[in-house]
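In the laboratory, one determines a bound structure by crystallizing the protein with its ligand and collecting diffraction data. In a computational setting the workflow is compressed into a single prediction: the sequence and the ligand go in, and a structural description comes out. We illustrate the idea with fe (ii) ion.
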Amino acid sequence: MFGKLFKSKKEQVKLFYNTDVHCHILPGVDHGSPSVEHSLEMLKAEAEMGISRVILTSHVTAVSFENTRETLMDAFIKLKDAVSDAGMDMDLYLSAEYRMDEYFDKEYAADHLIPMPGNHILLENSFQQELMNLDELLFDMQVKGYKTILAHPERYSYYSRRRKRYEQLHNAGARFQVNILSFTGYFGEEARDSALWFVRNGMIDFLGSDMHNVKHAHIIMDYINSKEWKKIGPMIEPTIKNDLITW
Ligand SMILES: [Fe+2]
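The predicted complex, in structure-token form:
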């Protein structure tokens, strides 16, 4: 009886899929999680949202984060051990988020990419301008058997002025991964508008957290508890392929 006098903590709404395909939870390899402890906190937040499988997509960029399978493997083993010691039921998979730059060209030519299962590769454009030979690269990669996923297309402001380009890229076989953070306005109104444009046009293939820290995780958790998400989540669900990536 007295229990009713106290407001109980609202239960966390769960996502409608179990696989996060984009995050920076691997510790100490980019500007994401700084430590194994922080990574565990991020994974606990993922679990609260219903995520049980996480593809670790650390940055690979020229000069700042020239990661390879070897540089990432040490952190991956440490995190897997920590997850198992903590008794967490969380499946981890090692991949990467590739900025399409001169370092990527080198790694791609040497056949050193770290794809997700099913040969999916997460690709990032420069935020200043689209890669000059993007169409050729996407075509070449697809011929080689890769499934190309463009990371957060809503965040490249040069596309928001020419959204026809999204349709061209999608028709050319690029899959789109939109960040949940973009809906929250975290990356500004332009990115939010574009994210909502993707919802209206049914062009979201994957959703990702792209979380770099626990703060990001909490913003996403609050957002999926919102009325807006309750409305747009079911609009996105039919085209989402996150759980089709299995390992
Ligand atoms: Fe990212």
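The first helix runs from residue 36 to 48. Keep in mind that any predicted model is a hypothesis to be tested, not a measurement.
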